[in-house]
Amino acid sequence: MPKPLLRLTSGRGSFSQGSPKKENDADRNHKNGVIENGYAPETFSPGPIRNRHKSIVSLLRYSSIVIVVLALTGSFWWTLSLTSVSIRKPFRGYRQLQEQLVSELYEIGDLSLALSKSRELEFCPEEFENHVSCFNISENLALGFSDGKEYSRHCEHITKQNCLLLPPANYRIPLRWPTGKDVVWLANVKITAQEVLSSGSLTKRMMMLDEDQVSFRSMSNTFGVEDYSHQIAEIIGLRNVSHFAHTGVRTILDIECGYGSFGAHLYSHQLLTMCLANYEASGSQVQLTLERGLPAMIGSFTTKQLPYPSLSFDIIHCARCHVEWEKKDGIHLIEVDRLLRPGGYFVWTDPVTNSQRSPRKKDSRKKWNMVRLLAENLCWEMLPQQDETVVWKKTSKKSCYAARKTSSPALCSKDRDFETPYYRNLQPCIGGSNSRRWIPIENRRKWPDQAQLNSTELLMHAGLVSDEFSVDTVYWHNAVTNYWSLLSPLIFSDHPKRPGDEDPSPPYNMMRNVMDMNARFGGLNDALLRTGKSVWVMNVIPTKGTNTLPLILDRGFLGVLHDWCEPFPTYPRTYDLVHAQGLLSLEFTDKPRCQMVDLFAEMDRILRPEGWVILKDTIHLIELARSIATHFKWEARIVEIESSSDERLLICQKPFLKQQQSS
Question: For a designed S-S bond to 275, which of 215, 257, 354, 542 qualifies (C-beta 3.0 to 4.6 A apart)?
Fold first, then answer.
């Protein structure tokens, strides 16, 4: 009988009061080799592969040969027996049989390969605790990348190392939302006390270190994030931050976001902020922001376009973000223009903007004048400046480009104006002007109405009809209800459900960071919000599928384009729930470019301990996925949706494994 799935708990432990620690039951269990939820951990001694494992793999390979012989023999006699049928029908039947045979052989080969690989999985070295592939700065420097390119994403040189990633020695389950927004466990992130105390930028300085916790506050004795947000609203001409939504503002891109305090404050006003920052080996802005339960991903303004559609964000914010906007003919500012919706705002806070008041700062004045001139050539209107903060408003009228004093930068031609570039080289031309989605933010429907696109808005997205969209909305509402009813008894019971007992009602904040790996229209995101779940969703559109990311962004959600044969740009242990419907069929049935075990290794990396995986796909792929999941030490169960359906659900939970105590 399989043992029950591990219980998901959060908020264990109390806030530190500065008193000496006493050894509690959890500490004694930890020393005795017991994990937090009461189960004994696996032994961490990988050792050589047992002989019986080799025998199993050999048997699978031998079986595949036998199946080939039997299938070909059978198909030969079957073809001969159809002499009374027309030639075309036997040919079609034989072709179908061949295709089915190839499919079955691929599954057998993939299964044997997955089993042989996963049985060889070892625990990752300790230095992999916070490792992010494709962002190895020292390796990039050794390969000759420089001039900022060392911070860029380089996946072409990585070597995949599928191993089981253990959390840090003193890792603890994050506190539940919204408490976790203001307090994180120090051991869960890689940051030193000196990095906390020396955080000097506007959005970093509101941090306090208290023994085993890092706490954040929105107020300070000086100029705090609330005052700063209010200042931006005043520059735009609003009474306060709560009026942003009335002007059509919903999504914000925060470049080099500090530790997410700006986005945390705006979240309380129905504004959704994506933190974007470089990879950092220690003191990472992205890692701490995600640990707080706020949206973030690794990315940089270097030589590539960001993997977002044109016309995606209502505000782009840069507070001392160290991007040299005036360099390279302003190509990074042109990228900001591509990402901004018509009528959107670019907010720049930097001492350079005050250089006119300091005659001795000639370099700063030159930089400021170059940025102002470029902004004017982009048809941005500069609003009244306050202190170091400048706000520009992007034009809402395409006619402005023809009326400029100069034709530089030029408008992108249609063959260079991609809807959603995937790390393409930065373009020195103005993008987005050819898009059917050119609608000023003041003319868009306001949140939350914008999440339900009407028939006119849907026609802008590859002719999507309202009926298809409505069916998708109803489907996901029912699916989310079913997901919650399936997870509830597993999370809140240490024993199988007793006859007659009712399922416990789950708290809406039992998980916070959610990733939909094949988001399609963003239906899961919409359903979670409609049912009152306190989550945010990273909607991922695979590069192998249909690009629906512009639609998702237009609904007021967050998302990104990604190739699932590459690592996702995030740190380990950053998501509570990973969901994928149809992703296995998309990636592994037609000319797969990577192995399923590689995808599972990536899911294991980004999942928090006691995190959940929900997969929906065809029966044979779900069975294969379950066999792989068990080798990652996940508890895995297959759920039948409907008896007549050829699809199944796979629900998995990643265990909370702990490192062995050194003797």
Answer: 257
Global pTM reads 0.82
Pairing outcome for strands 313-319 and 251-255: parallel
Q: What is the 8-class DSSP label of residue 5?
A: P
Residue 250 CA to residue 266 CA, distance in Å, equals 10
DSSP-assigned letter for residue 18: S
Beta-ladder partners of 254: 275, 317
DSSP secondary structure string for all residues of 86-122: -SHHHHHHHHHHHHHHHHHHHHHHHHHHHHHHHHT--
Max intra-chain CA distance, the chain: 97
- Taking Cα atoms as reference points, which of 381, 373, 369 lies closest to residue 340? 381
First to last CA, the chain: 35
* CA geometry: angle 546, 520, 487, nearest 5 deg: 145
Rounded distance, CA 647 to CA 630, Å? 20
Report how many helices (DSSP H) and strands (DSSP E) the chain contains, helices first.
19, 17
**Paired tokens of 58:** 């050999």
Residue 69, phi-psi category: left (phi > 0), alpha (psi -120 to 50), beta (remainder): alpha
C-alpha separations of 252 from 159, 237, 319, 560 in Å:
34, 18, 13, 14
Which backbone phi and psi does 606 adopt, to 5 degrees? -85, -10
Classify the phi-psi angles of 353: left when phi > 0, otherwise alpha if psi is within -120 to 50, otherwise beta: alpha
Cβ-Cβ contacts under 8 Å for 380 (sequence gap 6 or more): 337, 346, 392, 393, 394, 395
Average pLDDT score over the chain: 81
Neighbours of 404 (CB within 10 A): 13
pLDDT in tens, 489-536: 666 544 344 444 555 555 667 799 999 999 999 999 999 999 999 999
Cβ neighbour number for residue 485 with a 10 Å cutoff: 11
Q: Which helix (H) or strand (E) holds 184?
A: strand 183-185
**For residues 566 and 388, what is the distance between their CA atoms, to the nearest angstrom?**
40
Instruction: Choose among 195, 179, 201: nearest CA to 264.
Output: 179
Q: How far is CA 216 from CA 199, 207, 255, 292, 425, in A?
A: 12, 5, 19, 10, 37
Please name the residue that has the structure tokens 């990633």. Answer: 165
- Confidence at residue 485, expressed as pLDDT on a 0 to 100 scale: 80
Q: What residue type is 622 in one-letter code?
A: I
What is the tens place of the pLDDT at every residue in 175-196?
A: 999 999 999 999 999 998 778 7
Residue 574 CA to residue 512 CA, distance in Å, equals 10
Phi, psi of 577 (to 5 degrees): -140, 130
Nearest to 74 by CA among 82, 84, 85: 82
Taking a C-beta distance cutoff of 8 angstroms, is the pair 603, 613 a contact? yes
Residue 416 and residue 427 in contact, taking contact as beta carbons nearer than 8 Å: yes
Three-class DSSP category at 250: coil
364-375 burial, b at 16+ Cβ within 10 Å, e below that, comes to bbebbebbbebb
- CA–CA distances in Å: residue 446 to residues 187, 213, 311, 555: 41, 38, 16, 10
Adjacent-strand bridge partners of 391: 347
The C-alpha atoms of residue 229 and residue 216 are separated, in whole angstroms, by: 17
Report whether pLDDT(118) > 50: no
The 10s digit of each residue's pLDDT in 234-265 is 999 999 999 999 999 999 999 999 899 999 99
**Non-local CB neighbours of 586 within 8 Å, separated by 6+ positions:** 518, 542, 544, 545
Residue type, position 574, single letter: T
